[in-house]
TrEMBL record:
Protein name per Swiss-Prot or TrEMBL: Nidogen 2a (osteonidogen)
Organism, scientific name: Astatotilapia calliptera
GO aspect biological process, one term: epithelial cell differentiation
InterPro entries: 6-blade_b-propeller_TolB-like (IPR011042), Dev_reg/Prot_inhib (IPR051950), EGF (IPR000742), EGF-like_Ca-bd_dom (IPR001881), EGF-type_Asp/Asn_hydroxyl_site (IPR000152), EGF_Ca-bd_CS (IPR018097), G2_nidogen/fibulin_G2F (IPR006605), GFP (IPR009017)
Disulfide bridge positions per record: C834-C841, C914-C921
Keyword Glycoprotein: yes
Length: 1230
């Protein structure tokens, strides 16, 4: 190619475009009653009547024959639960959802209208077909039906205590689903001026003014498993924050602002939602904060460069945003896709050029570049960057293998601690990751004290860095290899039991001049209050990441313990949902992206240092395939017991052997590694007219004055000739393709990014800058030192450790809270190390590793580091001794499928035991013996109940009865160490009058029953192994009825008519009965039982019913009250039948199953089986009253009400102190 055909181009800094206008209300699909629409009744939480479809609609790859339209901006393929169960939550949902604007909307009082219909009108179908063919040119799609749902002028829900919003703060939007016999497509339409609010306040906000952005996208919902469990289905999010919601009407993935198109289902094969892809210059904004890159050529005179094809170059976003230019607008210039460009003349830098047309000019930066440590590979549709051997990353950013990585950034936002708002104003965040071990240390400085304590459980702030640089086991890759240094992470944390919500948004903005990752963090929401001095502990846990093109997601439940002086140890939990979006390269079809990977987080340490106001997280991270047994995990490289330098890689060999190899850019024996100065040793890659600047493990190049980087980011080329014009630069270029074109540039202040050494000053000039070392320092300004000669003696491990600690920031300010090792005159670690800021001291070995049990607080007498440490901990429990013995037997590192006892913090056996990382689990008693019939190999673990009561750390109150006052019908429920009373107002749960009926400290109440004739409550106590009762009068005390020959008494039933009680014992597997005073005890059944749980008695017929959740053969049986006529009622299609009750209206037996998630009923003869509700969470017990089922839910830790006829959740009660609620019953006050 002639050099005149490769003229240099410029980056446009002005934007004067003829843009496509947004859609107007008149452009929406016709709607309203005149067009045959139905109107949704007004209200806050309304759902339409079932919209029956003439033929099935395929959503993802599942057929649905009916739809529901809801007030809150969604369309679902199943009847919706109560809005509190989904409206404040993000994706994924438990049920199928098409969500054009999921938020808390309220049309009460005639404010706004919601219309919906299914139609076959040709004009509607033709328009849907036209839009789909534009967005998916290769689609063979002719819609047969369309569903049109329109929300017109709908407002957000508002508490009556708040002042009303302006009348114009209403939204209008539309969703159109077009489908045929095999495919479905969805259009979202947001007319200009149609969105005036972008989120709503949560229902349970606790007076905290935090607005949740609307959720837009799709969710498949839970997918039933044939056996006993459900799997979380795929989902797709269009929005992630308020700004992305605002973009809905300003942009569009169809090329028309406000118009969005998606392929949403296929009959034969469908993995996830596919957005439209249409050529043209109007595109969606990136969701992760990148600038769009686009190069425009005149279509009349196309330019050919190498193998370039006239295909669109996709902007870098979380998904590839499609583009469209409608035929009704002027035809734009063509877009050319760039390939790898290799120039024979390195002095001439060629960049594609914007020419010919004056209709459009765009604001963009230089096109995507490869790292200087990467190579470019050409593919049929474009190019991709790949890191060179010895480096890792995504090709755009590459880091040296094995070298430690640093992260710096700022934290901002507002966090409510209780009801107190605390502002975080750009406080510092620093992280240090030992990549060779996967150890990530995160420190946040200047944290205000109230929020410092409260943020201790929020380890997910630092978990991001662990995922990025985790220790890779076989067939896995850490996150940085996918994301590089530019990505966005949006995480939501929901705390239990208080339902506080915290949003974490972390945006990576690249590598700085020192190769440090720069990450900005914004935290907003509320967190539970933690008292000063509290300690937080978190056990190791596993997180499964799902990978899709340009996005990684995960969802998990975490448990943590809080230890305080006045309350002792308490357990809490939170749910974490997160999306990490990044730019991938779509041109390399051979690139293997894993579908799922599992990260194991060990040695989780969190601490808030009050004196220094520093919040710290430390986590060791390992990443591996899910459910694949890694080989050789006992090797010191994986166990973290090697002695390689922190700047070295540990390479596992056979058995326990390993090799230490210094990281790329370092030299040494692997046990002691030192940075290679590539600049001084002539190993740099910098070309002519450039300066080489050494970095730890690498180097960078800087162009000399008068030169700038060319397109490849490496070669320095002479700056274009400029003339000053009105304070800007005017550049002239003449091309054979068009007349002269003017480009305007303003000077960039390079000094604002602090490019010079910390001991140098930066001098900005027109088009360039200079770095000059300060007085007393020598160097080129990019590196300055007080001496020019290198030290003769090589540094020891301690000296290398000490000198690598960063004690000052890039601005020259000291970094508080940094621990700097102390070395002796010979460079060895002093036996006793002390933290200069906190005052803590400890002993270390020759490698600087802390000796366990030697740490002492400030002011305490230090430990003699020359004497052995005397343990002061409590004696090991039987569980801990057994665990230690087996670990030793396995050679120090058990495999993922080997059994190691799981112990509680107090040393007792955890009630659920599992084989390693498998799903093979079972229940145990307090001595670690397996409870027969509880073994499972399923994602739903057995419903084991702890047989050891929690410790009582507060003064115990006297255990006497405090009955509810002036109540007619009351629901009684068991919750750990108490029996609670929840009055009913009709069929509604009256939360305002709920109270504790009986406090039983040290007990584990499982089964309860009520004798309405004598007004007494009966219960089983798993801890005391007893059956008890108490009169329902104020001040009445408990009475022990039976306390011998009981092991695990659970379900309990009272026959009021015959004055008998019945119970199940799940360890000896027996069903017994006795008189209500405990006399006349006898065994009814002791054979063919494996794990009996629930039991009820129907007094009117003298019939007994019970469940047996034997994992091999679960069943529901019946007999007479005297043990005759035993028979199986149900044995198929059940999993964990926990709850059992009697529907007196239909005379049917009903049960709730924690395995199948269904509530079902059946007649006593086995006929008339029907499903009342198919989407429960984790039911434990249940009662029936006036066409409603009330069940306790172990996932929600509350009482849920279900309407029998409507199959809907109608109410729920969540106690303030959240823990598993067990049995419940109805009490009739006489």
């Amino acid at each position: 190619m002639e050099r005149w055909a490769m003229l240099a181009a410029c980056v446009l800094l002005c934007c004067s475009c003829t843009m496509v206008t947004a859609i107007q209300r008149a452009d929406m699909f016709p709607y309203g009653t005149l067009n045959g629409d139905s109107v949704l009744r007004e209200g806050d939480d309304e759902t339409s009547k079932v919209l029956s479809l003439p033929r099935p609609l395929y959503f993802f790859n599942s057929p649905f024959s009916q739809l529901y339209v809801a007030t809150n901006g969604i369309i679902s393929a199943q009847d919706l639960p109560m809005e509190k169960q989904y409206v404040d939550d993000g994706f994924p949902t438990d049920f199928p959802v098409v969500a054009p604007f999921l938020a808390d909307i309220d049309t009460s009082g005639g404010r706004g209208q919601i219309y919906y219909r299914v139609t076959e009108i040709p004009s509607v179908l033709n328009r849907v077909a036209q839009e789909v063919h534009r967005g998916f040119p290769d689609a063979n799609f002719t819609p047969t039906h369309a569903v049109v749902a329109t929300w017109e002028n709908v407002p957000a829900y508002e508490e009556q205590t708040r002042p009303p919003s302006p009348p114009n703060k209403v939204n209008t939007f539309q969703a159109v689903i077009g489908y045929d016999e095999t495919d479905s497509y969805v259009l979202f339409l947001y007319p200009e001026g149609g969105l005036n609010f972008f989120g709503t306040l949560p229902k349970e906000s606790y007076n905290v003014e935090i607005e949740l952005p609307a959720r837009v996208g799709f969710s498949r919902g839970e997918i039933p498993n044939i056996l006993t469990s459900r799997n979380e289905g795929p989902y797709y999010s269009v929005t992630s924050n308020e700004q992305s919601v605002k973009n809905l009407y300003q942009f569009g993935n169809s090329g028309i602002p406000g118009l969005w198109l998606f392929h949403t289902g296929n009959r034969y094969s469908f993995d996830n939602i596919v957005p439209a892809s249409i050529k043209g210059p109007v595109s969606t904004p990136p969701t992760v904060g990148y600038d769009s890159h686009m190069v425009i050529f005149s279509p009349e005179k196309p330019l050919t460069i190498g193998e370039a094809a006239t295909q669109p170059f996709p902007p870098p976003a979380a998904y590839q945003p499609p583009t469209l230019y409608p035929q009704t607008y002027p035809r734009p210039a063509a877009v050319i896709r760039l390939h790898c460009l290799v120039w024979h003349d390195q002095r001439t830098m060629v960049t594609p050029i914007v020419l010919k047309t004056t209709t459009f000019s765009f604001s963009f930066r230089f096109l995507q570049q490869c790292s200087q440590n990467a190579f470019c590979t050409d593919y049929a549709t474009g190019f991709c960057c790949h890191c060179q051997p010895g480096f890792y990353g995504n090709g755009r950013q590459c880091l040296p293998d094995g070298a430690p990585q640093r992260v710096s950034g700022k934290v901002s936002g507002t966090v409510y601690v209780g009801s107190t708002p605390v502002s975080l104003n750009n406080i510092d965040l620093h992280a240090y990751i030992v990549v060779g071990d996967g150890r990530a240390y995160t420190a946040i400085s200047e944290v205000p004290e109230p929020v410092g304590w409260a943020l201790m459980p929020v380890a997910p702030i630092g978990e991001l860095f662990g995922w990025l640089f985790a220790l890779e086991l076989q067939n896995s890759q850490a996150g940085f290899k996918l994301t590089g240094a530019e990505f966005s992470r949006h995480a939501e944390v929901v705390f239990y039991p208080g339902n506080q919500r915290l949003s974490i948004i972390q945006t990576a903005r690249g590598l700085d001049d020192h190769n440090h990752l720069t990450v900005g963090t914004v935290i907003s929401g509320s967190v539970p209050f933690l008292p000063p001095g509290a300690e937080v502990t978190m056990e190791p846990f596993k997180e499964t990441y799902q990978y899709y093109p340009s996005v990684a997601t995960s969802t998990s439940i975490r448990e943590y313990s809080v230890v305080t002086a006045d309350r002792g140890s308490e357990s809490f939990s939170f749910q974490l949902k997160q999306n990490i979006t990044y730019r991938d390269c779509p041109h390399n079809n051979q690139a293997a992206t894993p579908e799922t990977l599992q990260i194991l987080m060990e040695r989780v340490f969190v601490m808030f240092v009050k004196e220094e106001r520093i919040l710290r997280y430390a986590i060791t991270n390992k990443i591996s395939p899910v459910r694949v047994r890694p080989v050789g995990l006992h090797n010191p490289c994986y166990a973290g017991t090697h002695d390689c330098d922190t700047t070295a890689q540990c390479i596992p060999l056979e058995d326990l052997a390993f090799q230490c190899q210094c990281a790329t850019g370092y030299t040494g024996d692997g046990h002691n590694c030192y940075d290679i100065d590539e600049c001084a040793e002539g190993l740099g890659t910098c070309g002519d007219n450039s300066e080489c600047v050494n970095l730890p493990g690498s180097h960078r190049c800087h162009c000399q004055r008068g030169y700038e980087f060319g397109y490849d980011g490496r070669t320095c080329v002479a700056m274009a000739q400029c003339v000053c014009c009105f304070g800007m630069f005017q550049l002239w270029f003449l091309t054979p393709f068009s007349p002269s074109v003017f480009f305007f540039f303003s000077d960039i202040d390079e000094c604002s990014s602090s490019p010079c050494h910390i001991n140098a000053r930066c001098i900005n000039g027109l088009g360039s800058f200079q770095c000059q070392c300060q007085l007393g320092f020598f160097g080129n300004g990019f590196y300055c030192s007080q001496q020019e000669d290198r030290p003769e003696r090589l540094k020891t491990r301690c000296e290398h450790h000490r000198d690598s600690v960063k004690t000052t920031s890039a601005d020259g300010y000291p970094i508080t809270g940094v621990y700097k090792p102390q070395c002796d005159a010979e460079g060895q670690y002093l036996p006793q190390q002390c933290h200069g800021s906190t005052g803590y001291c400890w002993c270390v070995d020759s490698r600087g590793e802390e000796r366990a049990g030697t740490r002492t607080p400030p002011g305490a007498a230090p430990v003699d580091c020359d004497r052995p440490v005397t343990p002061t901990e409590r004696p090991e429990s039987m569980c801990e001794r057994w665990r230690a013995s087996l670990i030793e037997h396995y050679g120090g590192k058990p495999g993922p499928q080997q059994y190691v006892p799981q112990c509680e913090p107090d040393g007792e056996f955890s009630p659920v035991q599992c084989y390693g990382e498998t799903n093979y689990c079972w229940c145990v008693d307090q001595n670690g013996r397996m409870v027969p019939g509880t073994k499972s190999d399923d994602a739903v673990k057995p419903a084991c109940i702890s047989s050891v009561p929690p410790p009582t750390v507060r003064p115990t109150s006297r255990p006497d009865v405090t009955p509810p006052i002036n109540t007619g019908i009351t629901l009684l429920y068991a919750q750990g160490q108490k029996i609670g009373a929840l009055p009913l107002n009709g069929t509604r749960l009256d939360e305002s009058r709920s109270k504790t009926l009986l406090a039983l400290h040290g007990s584990i109440v499982v089964g309860i029953a009520y004798d309405c004739k004598e007004n007494q409550v009966y219960w089983t106590d798993l801890s005391a192994r007893s059956i008890n009762r108490a009169s329902m009068v104020s001040g009445a005390e408990p009475e022990v009825l039976i306390n011998t020959n009981l092991v695990s008494p659970e379900g309990l039933a009272v026959d009021v008519k015959r004055r008998l009680m019945f119970w199940v014992d799940s360890t000896p597997d027996v069903i017994e009965r006795a008189n209500l005073d405990g006399s006349g005890r006898r065994t009814l059944f002791d054979t063919d039982l494996v794990n009996p749980r629930a039991i009820i008695v129907v007094s009117s017929t003298g019939t007994l019913y019970w469940t047996d959740w034997n994992r091999e053969a679960p069943k529901i049986e019946s007999s007479s009250v005297d043990g005759q006529n035993r028979q199986v009622i149900v044995s198929d299609g059940i999993g964990l039948p926990n709850a059992l009750t009697y529907d007196s209206a239909t005379e049917q037996i009903c049960w709730a199953d924690a395995g199948t998630k269904r509530l079902e009923c059946i007649s006593s003869d086995g006929s008339g089986r029907r499903v009342i509700h198919a989407n429960l969470n984790y039911p434990f017990s249940m009662v029936y009253y006036r066409n409603h089922f009330y069940y306790t839910d172990w996932r929600r830790d509350g009482v849920i009400a279900v309407n029998k006829h409507r199959s809907l959740f109608t109410d729920e009660y969540l106690p303030e102190q959240r823990s598993h609620l067990k049995t419940n019953c109805i009490m009739h006050t006489l």
